[in-house]
Amino acid sequence: MHDFQAIADRVEIEALRGEFTDAAMMRDYDRLASLFTPDGVLRMPNIPAELTGPEEIRAWGRRVPGFVEFLVQTTHPGVIRIEGDSASGRAYMQELGRLRDGRAEFNFAIYHDRYRRTAEGWRFTERVYEVRYHDATPLKGSPPPVASGPGGTGI
Question: How many C-beta atoms lie closer than 10 Å to residue 138's C-beta?
Protein backbone atom coordinates (compact mmCIF):
# COMPACT_ATOMS: atom_id res chain seq x y z
CA MET A 1 0.00 0.00 0.00
CA HIS A 2 1.67 3.10 -1.21
CA ASP A 3 -0.98 5.77 -0.81
CA PHE A 4 -3.36 6.93 1.85
CA GLN A 5 -6.43 6.37 -0.36
CA ALA A 6 -5.65 2.65 -0.64
CA ILE A 7 -5.25 2.44 3.12
CA ALA A 8 -8.50 4.35 3.70
CA ASP A 9 -10.35 2.11 1.21
CA ARG A 10 -9.17 -1.03 3.00
CA VAL A 11 -10.20 0.35 6.39
CA GLU A 12 -13.65 1.31 5.04
CA ILE A 13 -14.20 -2.10 3.42
CA GLU A 14 -13.15 -3.88 6.62
CA ALA A 15 -15.59 -1.65 8.53
CA LEU A 16 -18.34 -2.57 6.04
CA ARG A 17 -17.73 -6.26 6.71
CA GLY A 18 -17.80 -5.59 10.46
CA GLU A 19 -21.08 -3.69 10.12
CA PHE A 20 -22.61 -6.67 8.31
CA THR A 21 -21.67 -9.07 11.11
CA ASP A 22 -22.85 -6.66 13.81
CA ALA A 23 -26.16 -6.02 12.03
CA ALA A 24 -26.75 -9.77 11.65
CA MET A 25 -25.93 -10.46 15.30
CA MET A 26 -28.10 -7.56 16.52
CA ARG A 27 -30.91 -8.56 14.14
CA ASP A 28 -30.85 -5.08 12.66
CA TYR A 29 -31.94 -6.03 9.15
CA ASP A 30 -32.66 -2.45 8.09
CA ARG A 31 -29.01 -1.62 8.73
CA LEU A 32 -27.85 -4.87 7.12
CA ALA A 33 -29.86 -4.13 3.96
CA SER A 34 -28.43 -0.60 3.81
CA LEU A 35 -24.95 -2.08 3.34
CA PHE A 36 -25.86 -3.24 -0.20
CA THR A 37 -26.12 -1.29 -3.45
CA PRO A 38 -29.64 -1.08 -4.94
CA ASP A 39 -28.75 -4.03 -7.22
CA GLY A 40 -26.68 -5.85 -4.59
CA VAL A 41 -27.14 -9.59 -4.12
CA LEU A 42 -26.81 -11.75 -1.01
CA ARG A 43 -26.45 -15.44 -1.88
CA MET A 44 -26.58 -18.22 0.71
CA PRO A 45 -26.64 -21.48 -1.30
CA ASN A 46 -26.68 -23.61 1.87
CA ILE A 47 -30.13 -22.30 2.87
CA PRO A 48 -30.86 -21.83 -0.20
CA ALA A 49 -31.53 -18.11 -0.55
CA GLU A 50 -30.71 -15.51 -3.19
CA LEU A 51 -31.80 -12.00 -2.30
CA THR A 52 -31.49 -9.06 -4.69
CA GLY A 53 -31.60 -5.49 -3.47
CA PRO A 54 -32.02 -4.01 -0.01
CA GLU A 55 -35.80 -4.56 0.08
CA GLU A 56 -35.56 -8.34 -0.46
CA ILE A 57 -32.69 -8.55 2.04
CA ARG A 58 -34.68 -6.55 4.60
CA ALA A 59 -37.84 -8.63 4.08
CA TRP A 60 -35.95 -11.90 4.47
CA GLY A 61 -34.21 -10.60 7.59
CA ARG A 62 -37.52 -9.75 9.21
CA ARG A 63 -38.51 -13.44 8.90
CA VAL A 64 -35.26 -14.73 10.47
CA PRO A 65 -36.30 -14.38 14.16
CA GLY A 66 -39.25 -16.66 13.40
CA PHE A 67 -36.97 -19.60 12.64
CA VAL A 68 -33.60 -18.73 14.28
CA GLU A 69 -33.43 -18.88 18.08
CA PHE A 70 -29.92 -17.39 18.22
CA LEU A 71 -26.94 -16.77 15.98
CA VAL A 72 -23.32 -15.94 16.75
CA GLN A 73 -20.99 -14.97 13.92
CA THR A 74 -17.27 -14.29 14.08
CA THR A 75 -15.71 -12.74 10.99
CA HIS A 76 -11.99 -12.99 10.32
CA PRO A 77 -10.30 -10.61 7.88
CA GLY A 78 -9.36 -11.89 4.47
CA VAL A 79 -8.00 -10.50 1.25
CA ILE A 80 -9.17 -7.23 -0.32
CA ARG A 81 -8.32 -6.28 -3.91
CA ILE A 82 -9.16 -2.72 -4.95
CA GLU A 83 -9.50 -1.60 -8.55
CA GLY A 84 -10.60 2.03 -8.60
CA ASP A 85 -14.20 2.31 -7.40
CA SER A 86 -14.70 -1.48 -7.36
CA ALA A 87 -13.15 -4.13 -5.18
CA SER A 88 -13.38 -7.81 -4.37
CA GLY A 89 -12.44 -9.78 -1.33
CA ARG A 90 -12.98 -12.69 0.99
CA ALA A 91 -13.84 -12.80 4.67
CA TYR A 92 -13.68 -15.95 6.76
CA MET A 93 -16.60 -16.81 8.97
CA GLN A 94 -17.35 -19.01 11.93
CA GLU A 95 -21.04 -19.27 12.74
CA LEU A 96 -22.95 -20.97 15.52
CA GLY A 97 -26.69 -20.96 15.95
CA ARG A 98 -29.81 -22.88 16.77
CA LEU A 99 -33.04 -22.91 14.83
CA ARG A 100 -36.38 -22.74 16.60
CA ASP A 101 -37.06 -26.36 15.61
CA GLY A 102 -34.02 -27.40 17.69
CA ARG A 103 -31.58 -28.02 14.84
CA ALA A 104 -28.06 -26.76 15.43
CA GLU A 105 -25.77 -25.04 12.94
CA PHE A 106 -22.01 -24.79 13.29
CA ASN A 107 -20.22 -23.60 10.16
CA PHE A 108 -16.86 -22.47 8.94
CA ALA A 109 -17.40 -20.52 5.75
CA ILE A 110 -16.06 -17.95 3.33
CA TYR A 111 -17.84 -14.81 2.19
CA HIS A 112 -16.88 -14.09 -1.41
CA ASP A 113 -17.49 -10.36 -1.81
CA ARG A 114 -17.71 -7.66 -4.44
CA TYR A 115 -17.83 -4.02 -3.38
CA ARG A 116 -18.49 -0.65 -5.01
CA ARG A 117 -17.63 2.83 -3.83
CA THR A 118 -20.81 4.93 -3.60
CA ALA A 119 -21.64 8.42 -2.37
CA GLU A 120 -22.45 6.79 1.00
CA GLY A 121 -19.15 4.86 1.08
CA TRP A 122 -18.27 1.29 0.13
CA ARG A 123 -21.22 -1.09 -0.28
CA PHE A 124 -21.65 -4.75 -1.16
CA THR A 125 -22.66 -5.50 -4.74
CA GLU A 126 -22.47 -9.23 -4.05
CA ARG A 127 -21.90 -11.38 -0.98
CA VAL A 128 -21.84 -15.16 -1.41
CA TYR A 129 -21.70 -17.45 1.64
CA GLU A 130 -19.74 -20.65 0.90
CA VAL A 131 -19.87 -23.22 3.69
CA ARG A 132 -16.62 -25.18 3.97
CA TYR A 133 -17.50 -27.16 7.11
CA HIS A 134 -20.92 -27.89 8.60
CA ASP A 135 -21.73 -29.62 11.87
CA ALA A 136 -25.33 -30.23 12.89
CA THR A 137 -24.52 -31.89 16.23
CA PRO A 138 -27.05 -30.71 18.83
CA LEU A 139 -25.69 -27.89 20.96
CA LYS A 140 -25.30 -28.65 24.66
CA GLY A 141 -25.31 -25.01 25.74
CA SER A 142 -27.87 -22.26 25.51
CA PRO A 143 -28.03 -18.49 25.63
CA PRO A 144 -27.82 -17.18 29.20
CA PRO A 145 -31.03 -15.97 30.81
CA VAL A 146 -31.73 -12.27 30.29
CA ALA A 147 -30.71 -10.34 33.38
CA SER A 148 -33.23 -7.87 34.74
CA GLY A 149 -32.85 -4.91 37.01
CA PRO A 150 -29.73 -2.80 37.60
CA GLY A 151 -26.66 -4.10 35.79
CA GLY A 152 -28.66 -6.40 33.51
CA THR A 153 -27.70 -6.14 29.89
CA GLY A 154 -31.01 -7.20 28.42
CA ILE A 155 -29.14 -8.67 25.47
Answer: 8
